Structure formats: structure tokens, C-alpha cells
């Protein structure tokens, strides 16, 4: 698992700012609610790709597995919330995913390539944040977040493999473009705390 985390640290343009960790520890109920939303959205993204690209067998198989895993994570977060007396509720979305998706091209194959790259970056950042948070959390939550690292790291790789397939070659330049946007979103101050927000 250390190798996978090193790979993700090498891939991402920056680490999570320490102030965001402080925000998360001070808002653990909110963090869990938003984490549940993130898992559900990740499953929804995978399913929407399956509906749109029905002739892409590799994508169908990888996204089907990913959607199942994300929904299982969603159920696990809800179970943790129930034990802690945290009610699942609506939240306004973070600016993070919308900020990344703003640059997605409108026409295929560029659209598919970009959506997959954005998916890879979101999964990689989730993995990095689970690892950054785990040492500061109580045993149950730390174990859960450490347990998520392996699947999130695999999801990030799946997305990048599919992006290169859709592009018919390397996507490094496009990844670099999106990572520059991601760095700004992660490091610049945010107005409200979310799992993928900048520091508040």
C-alpha cells in the first residue's frame, strides 16, 4: 500500500494543506456527511459513463466494478454515521469537482478523455486525504479510511488507463492541465468545509 500512496503523492501537484486537516478534525460530522455524498457521486459518475459508452467493453467492466465498490463505501459511511448519531442530509457541493469539470471538452473523444482524467484526479485526491487524515482519527474511523486506500488507488489507475485508451495514446499533457487547476482548488482558501474543499 505504501507504494500506491507514493505513486499518488508523485502524481498529485501538492499535498493537502495542514489547515484543511484542522478543519476536518473540527468538523467530523460534516466530513462524514460529505464523504457519503462523494461515494454516491462517484458511483453515479461510473454508471453514467456505462450508459453513455455502451460499446466500450473495458470501460463497462471497470466502471461496473468501481460503481459497486463506491456504493459499498457509501453504505459503510452511512453505518458509521448511524453509530455516531450523525444524520445524512443534503449539502451544497464543493467547488472542487465543478472547477475541474469546467475544462472538460464538449465533444468526444475529448470529452471522454477529460471526464476520465478528472475521475482519476478526484480518486487520487481522496486517497491522499484518507491517508493524511487517518493518523489523527479515532481507531474505527482510522481503520476504515486506511482500508479505503487500496480501492481508491486502483480506481485512480483504472481511470488513467481508460483515458489513454480513449485518447489512443498518452494523456500526460492533458493531465498536467487539469492538475494545475486542481492545485489551485486545493491550496486556495474556501468559503465552506467539504471533503474536497480548500482550507477554510
From TrEMBL:
InterPro entries: Ferritin-like (IPR012347), Ferritin-like_SF (IPR009078), tRNA-Hydrxlase_MiaE (IPR010386)
GO biological process: tRNA modification
Domain of life the protein comes from: Bacteria
Molecular-function GO terms, alphabetical: tRNA 2-(methylsulfanyl)-N(6)-isopentenyladenosine(37) hydroxylase activity
CDD domains listed in its UniProt record: MiaE (cd07910)
SUPFAM superfamilies: Ferritin-like (SSF47240)
Protein name, per record: tRNA-(Ms[2]io[6]A)-hydroxylase
Amino acid at each position: 500500500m505504501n507504494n500506491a500512496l507514493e505513486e499518488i503523492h508523485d502524481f498529485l501537484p501538492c499535498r493537502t494543506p495542514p489547515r484543511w486537516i484542522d478543519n476536518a478534525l473540527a468538523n467530523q460530522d460534516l466530513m462524514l456527511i460529505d464523504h457519503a455524498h462523494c461515494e454516491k457521486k462517484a458511483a453515479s459518475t461510473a454508471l453514467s459513463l456505462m450508459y453513455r459508452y455502451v460499446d466500450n467493453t473495458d470501460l463497462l467492466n471497470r466502471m461496473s466494478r468501481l460503481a459497486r465498490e463506491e456504493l459499498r463505501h457509501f453504505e459503510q459511511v452511512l453505518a458509521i454515521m448511524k453509530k455516531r448519531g450523525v444524520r445524512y442530509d443534503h449539502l451544497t457541493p464543493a467547488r472542487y469537482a465543478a472547477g475541474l469539470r469546467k475544462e472538460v471538452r464538449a465533444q468526444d473523444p475529448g470529452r471522454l478523455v477529460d471526464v476520465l482524467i478528472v475521475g482519476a484526479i478526484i480518486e487520487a485526491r481522496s486517497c491522499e486525504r484518507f491517508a493524511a487524515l487517518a493518523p489523527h482519527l479515532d481507531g474505527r474511523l482510522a481503520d476504515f479510511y486506511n482500508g479505503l486506500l487500496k480501492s481508491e488507488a486502483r480506481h485512480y489507475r483504472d481511470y488513467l488507463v481508460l483515458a489513454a485508451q480513449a485518447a489512443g495514446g498518452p494523456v500526460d499533457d492533458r493531465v498536467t492541465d487539469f492538475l494545475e487547476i486542481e492545485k489551485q482548488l486545493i491550496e486556495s482558501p474556501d468559503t465552506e468545509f467539504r471533503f474536497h474543499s480548500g482550507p477554510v
